[in-house]
Each structure stands twice: as structure tokens, then as C-alpha cells.
Design a protein that fits this description.
Helix content: 40-55%
Distance between the termini: 56 Å
Number of strands: 4
Order of helices and strands: HHEEEEHH
Number of domains: 1
Largest sheet: 2 strands, antiparallel
Structural class: alpha+beta
Strand content: 5-15%
Oligomer: single chain
Radius of gyration: 17 Å
Low-confidence stretches: none
Length: about 120
């Protein structure tokens, strides 16, 4: 059995970044919420940048609960997708083009999602 020739680090990083960008682009709502993902190896960090339109109650001021819940849901869906697709992305069988086309790729569907707030955000 022949060993695979190691790929240059930049090629691996670019493949991972392209795959993540394709996964994120598959959910247009992510751009609407202005959510971004920072990737370090196989770990993701979701960030929702502040905007005045996210304020639900200007008297407090507090972030809108729906925006917070949507952020949590989007972060969970992307992380689950990333963890599930990681092996296929690494061996090259799942390409950004396949993710974008949706032929070999499906995002997980949220069945139920509940957030109980202990205080305002």
C-alpha cells in the first residue's frame, strides 16, 4: 500500500476555507445575520457582529431574543455540518462545488429549538 504524498499546508488550508465558505453560503440567512466563522484547524468559532438592528428593546438596550436564538441555531447547524463532513473534506471526496450544487450534500434540518432566557442579552 503506497502512502499519499503530503500536501502543502497552504493547499490544505485553502481546501478547508473553501469548504467552509461553501457550507456557510448554503444558508443565506447567515449573511443576513452578519454571522462569520473563524476556523482554526478543525475547530470553528461563530461570531455575530453587533449592529443596531439587532436591538430588540432600546429601553434596556437588549439584543432581540430571536436574533440570539437564530445565531445559536446557525452556529449549531454549521458546527454539526462541519464535524460530519470533515473526513470527506479532508480526503477530497467532498468539494466546495459539490457542497454548492447540493448533489452530494445536505444540511441537517432543525426539528426543534428552544431557548430559555434567564436575563436580557
Amino acid at each position: 500500500m503506497a502512502l499519499r504524498t503530503p500536501e502543502p499546508v497552504q493547499v490544505v488550508k485553502q481546501r478547508r476555507d473553501d469548504a467552509l465558505a461553501a457550507i456557510v453560503a448554503a444558508i443565506p440567512y447567515i449573511q443576513f445575520l452578519n454571522v462569520s466563522f473563524e476556523r482554526r484547524g478543525d475547530e470553528l468559532t461563530a461570531v455575530m457582529a453587533y449592529r443596531d438592528t439587532l436591538i430588540g428593546n432600546p429601553a434596556l438596550p437588549a439584543l432581540h431574543g430571536g436574533a440570539i436564538a437564530a445565531f445559536l441555531e446557525v452556529a449549531a447547524v454549521i458546527e454539526l455540518t462541519w464535524a460530519t463532513a470533515w473526513a470527506a473534506i479532508e480526503d477530497g471526496t467532498l468539494t466546495p462545488e459539490a457542497i454548492t450544487s447540493g448533489h452530494q450534500f445536505a444540511l441537517p434540518k432543525t426539528i426543534d429549538f428552544t431557548v430559555d432566557y434567564l436575563r436580557s442579552g
